[in-house]
Amino acid sequence: MLVSRHPVLENLGHIKTCKPTSSPKNIFTGNIPVVDLSDPIAAKTIIVKACKEFGFFKVINHGVSMDLPNKLEAESVKFFKLSKQEKEKSGPPNPFGYGNKNIGPNGDTGLVEYLLMCANPCNNQLHSRNSANAIVIPAIQESLQSVVNEYVIAVTNVACEVLEMIAEELQLKARDTLSSLIRDEKSDSCLRLNHYPPCPDLRASSDAQSLKIGFGEHTDPHIMSVLRSNEVPGFQICLKDGAWVSIPPDPTSFFLNVGDSLQICMLVQVMTNARFKSVKHRVLAADTLKSRVSMIYFGGPPLSEKITPLSSVMEEGEESLYKEYTWSDYKNSAYKTKLGDDRLTNFQKPFAQ
Questions:
Q1: Could you give the CA distance from residue 15 to residue 25 in angstroms, rounded to a whole number?
Q2: Tell me: the pLDDT tens digits for 103-145?
Q3: Which residues make beta-bridge pairs with 194?
Q4: Count of C-beta atoms within a 10 Å radius of residue 282
Q5: What are phi and psi of 282, to 5 degrees?
Q6: Torsion of the alpha carbons at 106, 112, 113 and 117, rounded to the nearest 10
Q7: What is the pLDDT of residues 5-27, one digit of tens each?
Q8: The one catalytic residue among 192, 228, 282, 292
């Protein structure tokens, strides 16, 4: 196994874009960490290093047939091509449903339209339409919901495999300490389908800088997020030195990022007492002739789950940086903030602020 002996960010501090490389598997490429899941012994070491230094990494050889994300992309495009009137039958989001430009309830906007869907099979409308707990989004085609269900199962397995590798590398008592949170039948997971219309006029616009935000900078509130997009660029992450780095799209791979608390399951930063960092990221509007389409799975714990640092990662005498709270507490607080706000500040202990 080849692993860089230097801090991961040493090679990234001054770059403005991440360029693809053909480096050997599981090494830090000088751009972003690349994790080959076909080599689990090497992968788990790289994953934990990536979570500490970047909060972000790329996963290859993940075992998911590309037919599945391609099928979901095609179904998503079919939905977003509907007339505005037809799409609005599936909105506004509350919290699930169709939205356009308005991101959340607190005034954030972007050049994006989206469909936010429940990713818990126990609650979605196809599997539980006769249940009192069914979450129904009007006017959603059964073909779209069906492939969403199939896709969610696949990416949940990828996220769980990664979380279990993290548990092994951190020598947690149980391998499923983290993964069990998003496998729970009451897990609060969701899937977001984003469509960024092409904006070729941005190249010529003198005011392009103020217009080009597709989705503003933010961190994800969950345990772990799994991103896949088509070949249109625009996704960026923020490094420790504040530089924004463009991530080249790769429709055959998944990009995973730590949330506000590992995102423990959307919340590992808290569970690891800030040893893992949630990554700030954003999407710039596509100044191309083709739309950007992305799908993001957010793996979340049950609403009643208490979010506290894992005792096994705490050193003797070390105090938690965060107050104890439930995922429901955190989620309710997050919905009251702006997109770019530091949501964890409200849950930090005074001495940690």
A1: 22
A2: 988 889 999 999 999 998 666 554 444 455 567 899 999 999 9
A3: 114, 294
A4: 19
A5: -155, 170
A6: -70
A7: 233 333 333 334 444 433 444 44
A8: 292
